[in-house]
Specification:
It is a single chain. The protein is α/β, with parallel strands linked by helices. The protein has one domain: Rossmann fold (3-Layer(aba) Sandwich). The chain contains 14 helices and ten strands. Helix 2 links the parallel strand 1 and strand 2. The longest helix has 21 residues.
Length: 335
């Protein structure tokens, strides 16, 4: 038993925002890989929010849920102390600003990230931090060149985000930049993972806005996806596996784009409609003028990552929604 405990201590990691859509899958994959996981949540006693985590394989032996709040400085100290790795996925709840977007959206995103990193700085056992960013930190630009895919060196234009009043991309961009500066100043080994739009089954019982958008598309609610225009897509399990990959690989450095396929919404519908003929997937969408872009994911593939196809990720989604009785039993993909 003592040897097992030593092994667990050597693979002890913290996952912030553990009950979230992506974080839940990461916790699942970490437990299956033998890690001991400290998961931070807003309320560890809320069965509706955290029950799905406690039922994961290995949770009884190797998962501990603790309370932490991004807006409380020092709130993550106890959760992170003694961990060799920290996966920071928690994000403040962001809506449309009522009056001051900088105070209501941008500053909380930056402060929340820095609060977690200040706790990391206090932990002498820390090996690496993996921060979950977003492809919106890369693709919001007005200088895209035809035939030149975006890579990890690309950053979204802060000025363009502010002019367009798209606060989520700006908040993620500023938070990631703040994280890089803090970690460089304090000698923390940071890697950032940059997923595109995440598709896949939901472990939490309440669907995230992302999962709800996918369900809406499959049910024919055109407006749920109309605003997407051109978008990268990635399977949720591949995102979880990518987190672990960039944490474990000693030679992992810097930022890593994480996406399988980039498609216009009309291209996506053209693939999905004939595959699921029983579903009312829209075949046409209101034209959204978005720049054409692609992603170069050779960096993460160089670590050994292989992504599932768009068909696989939506097959898993359709199967999940069907099993949850959110779609008709006739909605399985055609052969």
């Amino acid at each position: 038993m003592e040897e097992k405990m030593k092994d667990w201590e050597g693979k002890k990691v913290c996952v912030t925002g553990a009950a979230g859509f992506v974080a839940s899958w990461l916790v699942k994959r970490l437990l299956l890989s033998g890690y001991r996981v400290i998961g931070t949540v807003r309320d560890p006693d809320d069965e509706k929010k955290v029950g799905h985590l406690l039922r994961l394989e290995g949770a009884r032996e190797r998962l501990q849920l603790v309370r932490a709040d991004l807006m409380e400085e020092g709130s993550f100290d106890n959760a992170i102390l003694g961990c060799h790795g920290v996966f920071h996925l928690a994000s403040p709840v962001l809506g449309q600003p009522k009056s001051d977007p900088k105070a209501e959206i941008l500053q909380p995103a930056i402060d929340g990230t820095l609060n977690v990193l200040r706790s990391c700085k206090k932990n002498p056992w820390l090996r690496r931090v993996v921060l979950t960013s977003s492809s919106s930190t890369v693709r919001i630009r007005d200088d895209l060149l035809p035939g030149v895919p975006l890579d990890e060196s690309s950053w979204s234009s802060e000025e363009l985000c502010e002019n367009l009043k798209i606060w989520y991309p700006l908040s993620k961009t500023l938070a990631e930049k703040a994280a890089w500066k803090f970690c460089e100043d304090n000698g923390i080994d940071l890697v950032t993972l940059i997923p595109s739009f995440v598709v896949g089954p939901s472990l939490p019982p309440v669907l995230s806005s992302t999962a709800s958008d996918v369900l809406g598309l499959l049910k024919g609610e055109r407006e749920k996806f109309e605003f997407h225009g051109r978008m990268g897509y990635v399977h949720i399990d591949d995102v979880a596996l990518s987190h672990i990959l960039v944490y474990e690989k000693e030679n992992a450095r810097g930022r890593y784009l994480c996406t399988s396929t980039v498609l216009d919404i009309d291209e996506l519908a053209a693939k999905l409609a004939p595959r699921y003929p029983a579903l009312p997937i829209p075949k046409t969408f209101k034209k959204v003028e978005r720049p054409h872009y692609d992603f170069d994911v050779s960096k993460i593939k160089g670590l050994g990552m292989r992504f599932r196809s768009i068909e696989e990720m939506f097959d898993d989604c359709v199967h999940f929604f069907t099993m949850q009785a959110l779609l008709s039993p006739l909605s399985q993909p055609s052969s």
